[in-house]
């Protein structure tokens, strides 16, 4: 089994339940991926930082509760834990307001991971932590070392435009990091921003030509997901469920797909990859039937029970 190492933000999600009511949950896309894998019986490490405050203590305890290895999770007294207020519309879709300027997560330094062993690992990262702070240098160090030790690299840009004043710089930054990806997961509504292509097929072709890419996954909400390799395409549907909150849906999808890779290995067999994708789709569908992200993500026995009921 490969371990999954996620680097980036771990923060507090204040998620809207009613018009003027918010509930505190643990969040942050890379951390959500680590938790997804751990709840599916995988081995997860999280690399990041929280503030030396009550929010940070809560987040540390949450990762412990979900059996994520926190050896490389640090506490900072120089900045507070980052906060995100998540507002839900009538379709349970989200918008974000961040309090993070800078947050403790952005001040994470590369010295903290000098002894991290990347052998037999999958490294996962997103774009939210690629601004001009020490955490970006930590990404650069981690990715370089991971690639040298044969790690599989997974990138989910997970675009948050309101965190960047200069969107052209954001676009350029994302494209600088696309070259590292063996696995790239992109939401369909992010394609044009990332590729500057309004034509869907042109955008897909551009991404498939990335030098290290093996799998390109396009998630499409309730329309399912599509996986592209250089040789074939696989479409999988979403599962029809009662939607409570879509927070963490994309993170749980890629986390579950990486879990299958970590346990059963990379494959270029279409049938095998189709099973990986169906598994990921079930995990994401179950996640949106509950409130929050980490709490909502299913354990492996819940996924198996759902598969058995569906036949």
Secondary structure topology:
Elements: E1 3-7, E2 11-18, E3 21-27, H1 29-39, E4 44-51, H2 54-65, E5 73-76, E6 83-88, E7 94-99, E8 121-126, H3 134-148, E9 152-156, H4 167-178, E10 183-187, H5 191-195, H6 200-208, E11 215-219, E12 225-228, E13 233-236, H7 249-264, H8 270-287, H9 300-310
Parallel strand pairs: 1-4, 1-8, 2-6, 4-5, 8-9, 9-10, 10-11
Antiparallel strand pairs: 2-3, 6-7, 11-12, 12-13
What's a concise summary of this model?
The chain has 311 residues and is α/β, with parallel strands linked by helices. The protein has helices at 29-39, 54-65, 134-148, 167-178, 191-195, 200-208, 249-264, 270-287, 300-310; strands spanning 3-7, 11-18, 21-27, 44-51, 73-76, 83-88, 94-99, 121-126, 152-156, 183-187, 215-219, 225-228, 233-236.
